[in-house]
Structures are given as structure tokens and as C-alpha cells.
Design a protein that fits this description.
With 357 residues, the chain is an alpha+beta fold. The protein has 8 helices and 17 strands. Strands 1, 3, 10, 11, 12, 13, 14, 15, 16 and 17 form a 10-stranded mixed beta sheet that branches. The protein has a 6-stranded antiparallel barrel with strand order 4-5-6-9-8-7. Strand 16 and strand 17 form a beta hairpin. The longest helix is centred in the first third of the chain and has 10 residues. The radius of gyration is 18 Å and the shape is globular. The chain starts with 26 loop residues before the first strand and ends with a helix.
Length: 357
């Protein structure tokens, strides 16, 4: 069923700042002042592992996330930039296809196909109207922080979506795990490049090369869609950090899946062509077949993978909110529902591990 116009989408209980994070482990990070050194945040005691306390996080980090290097040297960075010509970006498929083995539906063979701006002070903070997959034209920060992510996995070129997220190093991007790693039995992606603010083939903020990739162990070893998330750290460009150029969205962990959601991405398959930022907006809900994923009414197709689920959209400024998930999968035979990896404990730990690499 299509979303009805006029439905109120602003969350009524969204904390206004990290200091007001909800009990039970929810964390809202909206800037360096609240993140530096892991101080000033609540809910750090519920990380995976019995008895993990805030003081123990450093120990967890020393174990290191599952990660791989990207383009580190100047020569490697230039090679990636040269590789992603306009022709290759246009031809890149909307990510590889992986079956979700833990799904049970009326048809036993149902599978999940992963879809693999500077703020303008004159813009309104009002959220956009409900949508099940229309071009986003309301402007604001999201038009710069969201972009297309290009990768080579197993020798094939793919296109996903991704978003800049706030971090102390100011160079962190969040996306789906399957956009950075092929899953169980596969390897990390190569030639990873990000184009923030992509529109109609243009690169208004340039093309950025990844220097480090991380994914959850659950995705890399088991292709687990419940933790289908990853982070990429990017090299500076002209001496500037990615966040200084494109801005960054906040990030939140452990919020209820029922909060209203705004999902963004660059779907590649018909009726879309990957040239425009598309959005969906409506209430979030649980996956009826189980698991922690967030379900929204949305028609976005392959290529939207890794695009942000944003809650509290507009609460931090025009087009600015908190990312609480990323576009992950849809069930075969369903074109009106999209599922996002909900940011819980596993993604929270990966976030803290990733930005320190």
C-alpha cells in the first residue's frame, strides 16, 4: 500500500542531543564534541560481551575489526581515480546478488537481493512528505553527505550508495557490508571510490579513494544480513578531510525500529537509472520473518544498497539527522518493501573500532 500524504513523520520522542540518549543503550552522535575519546556518551555498557564497561572499550578495539587496506600510497590513489571513468561508473551494476538463507516465507525459495551540499540556512527543517521511492528535491545536508560508492568485488564492478558519518577523524563513510565484502568465502572489495553529492553523472565534491575497509565479522564470515554493515575510511583530497568538504550525518545505535524513517540511495535498476538521489519516507517496522532489520515501504532497487536510514530528519538542521541503519535487502517477489540493517551493538562496536584505524 502506498504511503498516504499528510502523515506526520517527525518522531515525537527523538532525543535532541547525545546527552538525552534514550535508556537501554541508544547512542546519538552528532558531532566531534560528543564523540572525542568516547566521552560524553551514554549507553556504552551494553557492548557485546559480558561485563563490558566503558573503560574496557580500548581493550576491545585492540583486538581490531575485520578490515583490509584500500588505496594507501599516492600512486594507488591515482590508479583508483583513473579506473573509475564515467563509462565504468555508468556500467557498474547495482551490486552482486546474495541469497538470505535464514528467511522463511510462503515460498520456500524466497531470497533476499541486497541492493548492494553544504547546508543552506534558508532551507526549512520540515521533513519531506511520505514517499515510496521518488526523487529527493528538498535540499539540505543529505544531498552532499549521500553519494554513490563504486567497488570491484571478485573482478566485477558494482555501484552502491553510502553516507558520510560524523567521526573524530572526519573521513568515515557508512554503507552495507555487502558493498565492501563479498560475504562468506569471499574477499574485501578493491578500487573503492566514493562520490558524495552525485547527480546526473557529475561529481560536485570530487571522487574520494578509500584507505581502509571494515565490515562486521557476521557479514564477512556468514553473510548475515542482520549485521550487513561496514565502514570505509577515506584519504584526504587536496589536503582536506571528506567531512570538511561534504559534511556528515549523525549516527545512532539501539533506537526502536518503529521510529519514522527516511531512506536514501541511488537505485540503478528500472524504473531508476542511478543518476538521481531517491528517497523513501514512512514509519519503520520489524521484518515479519524475524531478525532485527528495519522495514519500510519503498520501491528502490539495486544500487540503493548501503544508503542511509535517517531518523529525526531535519532535527539537526535542513537535511540533517541521525543514521540508524543502512539499506540492505528486499525479498524476492516483493517490490514495495525494503529492509535496512538496524544499528545495534555489533555495528556500534565496529563504528568505534573503525574510526581509530
Amino acid at each position: 500500500m502506498l504511503l498516504t500524504a499528510g502523515v506526520g513523520l517527525a518522531p515525537t520522542a527523538m532525543p535532541a542531543s547525545p546527552a538525552q540518549a534514550t535508556p537501554g543503550g541508544a547512542i546519538l552522535a552528532d558531532g566531534l564534541d560528543h564523540i572525542g575519546g568516547l566521552t560524553g556518551l551514554t549507553g556504552l555498557t551494553d557492548l557485546p560481551g559480558a561485563g563490558v564497561r566503558p573503560a574496557d572499550i580500548a581493550t576491545e578495539i585492540t583486538r581490531g575489526p575485520l578490515s583490509a587496506p584500500g588505496a594507501v600510497s599516492t600512486a594507488e590513489q591515482r590508479e583508483v581515480e583513473r579506473y573509475w571513468t564515467a563509462e565504468r561508473r555508468d556500467r557498474a551494476f547495482g551490486t552482486h546478488i546474495t541469497d538470505r538463507s535464514d528467511a522463511t516465507t510462503d515460498a520456500a525459495t524466497a531470497a533476499a537481493a541486497p541492493f548492494a551540499d553544504d547546508p543552506n540556512p534558508g532551507l526549512s527543517n520540515a521533513p519531506p512528505p511520505p514517499s515510496d521511492g521518488t526523487p529527493y528535491a528538498q535540499g539540505g545536508l543529505v544531498t552532499a553527505t549521500t553519494g554513490r560508492l563504486f567497488t570491484t568485488i571478485g573482478g566485477a564492478d558494482f555501484a552502491c550508495s553510502a553516507s558520510v558519518v560524523t567521526s573524530p577523524g572526519r573521513d568515515l563513510v557508512v554503507t552495507a557490508g555487502h558493498c565492501l565484502h563479498g560475504g562468506a568465502g569471499a574477499q574485501f572489495a578493491q578500487r573503492v571510490a566514493f562520490v558524495p553529492g552525485y547527480v546526473d553523472g557529475t561529481m560536485p565534491y570530487g571522487i574520494w579513494t578509500a584507505r581502509r575497509l571494515t565490515v562486521t565479522p557476521g557479514w564477512a564470515s556468514g553473510s548475515n544480513f542482520d549485521v550487513d554493515a561496514g565502514f570505509a575510511l577515506f584519504n584526504t583530497h587536496g589536503g582536506r578531510h571528506l567531512e570538511d568538504v561534504a559534511g556528515a550525518q549523525g549516527i545512532t545505535f539501539g533506537l526502536p525500529r518503529t521510529y519514522p524513517q527516511y531512506s536514501f540511495g541511488y537505485p540503478r535498476l528500472l524504473p531508476y537509472d542511478g543518476s538521481q538521489l531517491i528517497y523513501c519516507a514512512g514509519p519503520g517496522s520489524a521484518d515479519p520473518y524475524g531478525g532485527p532489520s528495519i522495514r519500510v515501504g519503498c520501491r528502490m532497487t539495486a544500487g540503493a544498497s548501503g544508503g542511509p536510514f535517517i531518523t529525526g530528519f531535519g532535527r539537526l538542521g535542513p537535511g540533517h539527522g541521525w543514521i540508524d541503519g543502512v539499506v540492505s535487502y528486499a525479498y524476492a517477489g516483493s517490490t514495495s518493501r525494503l529492509y535496512g540493517t538496524h544499528f545495534g551493538d555489533g555495528v556500534k562496536l565496529l563504528y568505534y573500532q573503525s574510526y581509530r584505524l
